Amino acid sequence: MEFSKIENGRSSLDQSTEKAEKTKTYDLEERTALFAIRVRDLCLKLPKNLANIEYIPQLVRAGSSAGANYIEANEAIGDKDFGMKIKTCRRESKESGYWLRLAITDGSKESEEERAQLRQEAKELVLIFTAILKNRASNRHDDFDLNFKVYLVLVSWLLVLT
After folding, report:
1. Where do the domains of the chain lie, and which CATH numbers do they carry?
2. What is the dihedral of CA 56, 61, 64, 68, to 10 degrees?
């Protein structure tokens, strides 16, 4: 691992992460990793109170779980395994939005804006994972239609031969 240079209290890694966050990332593995990093960074800034002591661990787990499960989905053993992992990604993204809603910030404009942006990103991730599931279901239906048509042609052909 390469150590990053610290300038003005911010590492070059932090600065490159900020650049990536300003542009929409279409690599879903990278996008979910950036989401997890931003959630972690927000959690480190949240005030430590009785409620947040319960919420923060849940938020960190849910915020990082979507990306980890997406990586696992890409290494899935089969179609059913892939579908289950993507459903888990969607569920963890929804849960992240929930914990973000409940977490108590310090009330500053900066932390409220970051929370709002993260809640929006969680919603977008839910929509992306839902689209993946719908596309997968649609493709399976198309495969079934094609296989059924081939079957009908073969049965018709066999009936003609007999």
Report:
1. 6-134 (1.20.1440.60)
2. 180
Task: For 129-153, write each residue's pLDDT tens digit.
Answer: 999 999 887 766 555 555 556 656 6
Phi, psi of 7 (to 5 degrees): -135, 130
Residue type, 23: T
Structure-derived torsion over alpha carbons of residues 90, 94, 96, 102, reported in degrees to the nearest 10: -170
Helix-then-strand count for the chain, H and E: 5, 2
Token pair recorded at residue 31: 């996008």
Distance CA 63, CA 57 (A): 10
Place of tokens 């911010």: 10
Per-residue pLDDT of 61-105, as tens digits, reads 999 999 999 999 999 888 999 999 999 999 999 999 999 999 999
Predicted TM-score (pTM) above 0.85 = no
- Give the C-alpha separation, 77 to 20, whole Å: 31
